[in-house]
Amino acid sequence: xxxxxxxxxxxxxxxxxxxxxxxxxxxxxxxxxxxxxxxxxxxxxxxxxxxxxxxxxxxxxxxxxxxxxxxxxxxxxxxxxxxxxxxxxxxxxxxxxxxxxxxxxxxxxxxxxxxxxxxxxxxxxxxxxxxxxxxxxxxxx
Length: 141
What we know:
Elements: E1 2-8, E2 13-18, H1 21-29, E3 43-45, H2 56-61, H3 70-85, E4 87-90, H4 93-101, E5 110-112, H5 116-124
Parallel strand pairs: 4-5
Antiparallel strand pairs: 1-2, 1-3
């Protein structure tokens, strides 16, 4: 995983994680990278200083970063609420959501990962789903 500082044509700055540098390039070329503030796809990498730690003690003492904007604060709040109130089902999200929708499993708040085709099929099947603006911080249990 790699984190990039990004900036849109309107000057909004934000950060996002990508599987690799190639993944960023592919997603950007396909128009799938957009500004977290205004939604434009005219986004580029911003200058970013690397954080290098020389000892384990340095890593332990680094404070967590504070949200840089109201949007980041709202997204952090959303993430906290989702992680606190819903069960992370990982890559089983599509099958779990469909099973709940069909009454095969009891309703419970879940979140996880689905590819584009799975998400499209859920929507076509009438399953209420919405994308989340963050990457999971843990794996399914």
